[in-house]
UniProtKB/TrEMBL annotation:
It comes from the Bacteria. Residues 6-119 form the PafC HTH domain. Residues 142-205 form the WYL domain. Residues 238-308 form the WCX domain. PROSITE patterns: WYL. It comes from Pilimelia terevasa. Pfam families: HTH_PafC (PF19187), WCX (PF25583), WYL (PF13280). This is Protein pafC.
Length: 318
């Protein structure tokens, strides 16, 4: 699988490789680098928009493609030793410390070696009073991380917000990672027979089992470059009319379409479960209305009518 980390590593190696071989053919370069010629062309297209802050003429990496031969004409300073400011060095130290606490995302030994070199170069700055830990319940994250590192299967009691339900299931962990400030467990769920993401703060209880984790061959970590939520076309499409107080929905959730109708916006988005969408709409009162599907519109109208009727009923104790 061609991950973002693989591509970044390849791009960092590509510039010095090409600098040392001006005029090399794409076929020869792709053979040396172990990628297809098509992938190499895509990497070169990406390099054209990489460079120094400012990202204008004279800031970006430049090259000449003459037929099937490529020559780097401007490397944007990649051949010069890196000089970090105090803030940049501290930010890098903090990021590496966080990465070292997150299993399954990279080679921990390599991270710790890089961290040791940067801390040594940073001197007293590396000892700044900055504590780094994974967000969420620290004991829960540590326990799950330990089970992942030992390769043990887990039994989870998990709250699924989209269905407002708590279930028990056995999973084979793949990795623990942090996305958008939240820790997640990615694992093969034996109940669903598929790879699933579990927010750690929604794991009510867990227990490491005596058996080893045994995910099947098709259980591969998901590509999360586009975010944790993947709005596939097989999910229900919900269309809403939102007022000014509900426009935050367009910033918080990925939307397929947003149409401005003056005081209201029409928003189309994919949801994992219509019950979750029903609770979202009911929680915003008059600021959000359902356009489609009819099933959701009827469910919201029914619950709203029942609530109004309950408020209008006389108090039997009164």
């Amino acid at each position: 699988m061609n991950t973002s980390a693989d591509r970044l590593s390849r791009l960092l190696n590509l510039v010095p490789y090409l600098l040392a071989r001006p005029g090399i053919t794409l076929g020869e370069a792709s053979g040396d680098l172990g990628v297809s010629e098509r992938q190499l062309r895509e990497d070169l297209e990406l390099l054209w928009v990489c460079g120094l802050p400012g990202y204008g003429p004279g800031d970006l990496i430049d090259m000449v493609l003459d037929g099937d031969r490529v020559t780097i004409t401007y490397d944007a300073g990649i051949d010069r030793p890196l000089r970090l400011t105090a803030d940049e060095a501290l930010a890098l130290v903090v990021a590496l410390r966080m990465l070292a606490e997150t299993p399954g995302v990279a080679d921990r030994d390599a991270i710790e070696r890089a961290l040791a070199k940067i801390e040594s170069a940073a001197g007293d700055l590396a000892g700044a009073p900055v504590a780094v830990s994974l967000p969420g319940n620290a004991d829960r994250v540590a326990g799950i991380r330990a089970a992942v590192e030992r390769g043990r299967a887990l039994e989870l009691t998990y709250y699924t917000a989209s269905r407002d339900a708590t279930t028990r299931r056995v999973v084979d962990p793949l990795r623990v990672f942090v996305a958008a400030g939240r820790p997640y467990l990615e694992a093969w769920c034996r109940r669903a027979e598929a790879v699933r993401l579990f927010r750690v703060d929604r794991i009510d209880a867990f227990a490491a089992l005596g058996e080893p984790a045994a995910p099947p061959p098709q259980a591969a970590p998901a590509d999360l470059a586009g975010g944790v939520f993947r709005a596939s076309t097989d999910l229900p499409l919900v269309t809403l009319r939102v007022g000014r107080a509900g426009r935050w929905i367009t910033e918080y959730y990925p939307c397929e379409r947003v149409t401005d109708h003056g005081d209201e916006w029409e928003v189309a988005l994919r949801v994992t479960d219509l019950a979750w969408a029903r609770r979202l709409v009911l929680g915003h009162g008059p600021h959000v209305r359902v356009v489609a599907p009819e099933e959701l519109r009827a469910a919201v109208a029914g619950e709203a009518a029942a609530a109004l009727q309950a408020y209008g009923s006389p108090d039997p104790a009164g």
